[in-house]
Amino acid sequence: MTAMEPDVVVVGRGIVGAAVAMRLARGGRSVLTIDVGDPAGSATCASGAMLGVLGELRPHDNPAELALRLEAWARQPSWWDEIGMPPAPAGTFVVAGQDRPDDLTALRAMEDEALLHGLRAERVEPEEITELSNAPGYRSARALYLADEAWVDGPALRQEVIVVAARLGASVADDRAEAIEHEHGAVTGVRTRGAGSISCREVVLCTGAAVHALLRVSGLDETLVPAVVPAKGVGLVLEGSRGPRYAHVLRTPNRQFACGLHLVPRGPGRVYVGSTNTAGSHLPGTSGQVTAGETSQLLTGVTRELASPLNVWDITGMRYGLRPMPMDGMPIAGRTALDGLSVATGTYRNGVLLAPLMADAVAASLDGCGPAGLSPQRLSPPVDVTAVLRRGLGELIDHWRYDNGARWHERLSPLLEQMTELAFGTGPLVETRRHEVAEFVQRHGRPEMVPEVVIRFLQS
Questions:
Q1: 353-372 pLDDT, tens digit each
Q2: Which domains are present in the chain?
Q3: Contact 342, 205 (CB under 8 A)
Q4: I need a surface site. Which of 10, 118, 254, 385 has the fewest CB within 10 A?
Q5: Mean pLDDT estimate for the chain
Q6: Which of 79-83, 135-139, 355-359, 371-375 is predicted most confidently?
């Protein structure tokens, strides 16, 4: 068999694609990996790569998501042994901001789950955290030390996994995949930009948020894969010498559709900071580069609540990534209904943590025994439209309130007027708009999509 006639072509070389290639090569399959586009916008390359099991928790989260993170965490020791690149020494401080009752509720939920699952969670006074430095007026109310939460350099990890996969026999095509070739209900190969067609009987799509675009240009039914929407996240790399030596992750609980404000060490005098999350493809700032508003929001939050010395540090890197957010809340890994086509996507904010689990799920699926809960052929649960709207609007209100001070009500008033009309108005136009909102939320049943509902609604 030649290098261009592999058993499996893995499309996508983010952390999940690299992990899948490594796992399949270790299992004895001949594997060819090929990328799908420019690495700009890659979720792996833009991530803070926190291996957050409890740190991502909020009380109303789906218990199955936590169970999956716990399962992935249990696989980490063998994963790091195989790669030979251990994570940084563990330790994450999660701090609750003043006048943030939801933060305190999240910390209590983390403590409860830590006790239940045998993970370490220790209450500490914010004043005891030498790396924590609030700006005046932004006191931290409480803090929790999660001793088992680690982090890693995402791009460096991805490159190391690619090296290990190559050592196990996986080959790399210096080309780009343009479409999946198929006939008579089965995969026949991959069409590339440079080499033409690569023949194979098995293709695994590890293309993140771009999975439906590739299905579409291939003339395939997009419903082969449960709905995945891009969620843009922005991170900055800062360098400087003022302030403490940052050796632990500092973060808040998840907030406002995002993974909270966070600071991740990247070596002496260097840190990664992040917090943003904008879901959908029709909102301002969801394509292109890092925007001025995102940079301002991120730096303002981090320097106020976590690390005021960063105000005088240099910005040496700006990154954005499009995270694959599954609409039913669970990652997707395994065979689709098209013979020979598998997928691994939908890891959202936990791609680095879930990568080995996703790779194992794909390998098991190719052997005919993949986990049903991650299968692309699963039935998604019905969406509670009212609950999604209530939670999403609550997050929006929090965003306006905390980010705009006393003027938040002025930002909110046009929305309240429109929502009042939607709730209590009568007539054909109102009924049509109600139907449009309900239909959109049914298809995109995540609170993160409510801002797009609001924008569409106000624009109409």
A1: 999 999 999 999 999 988 88
A2: 8-45+155-227+327-374 (3.50.50.60), 89-151+229-324 (3.30.9.10), 385-459 (no CATH)
A3: yes
A4: 118
A5: 88
A6: 355-359
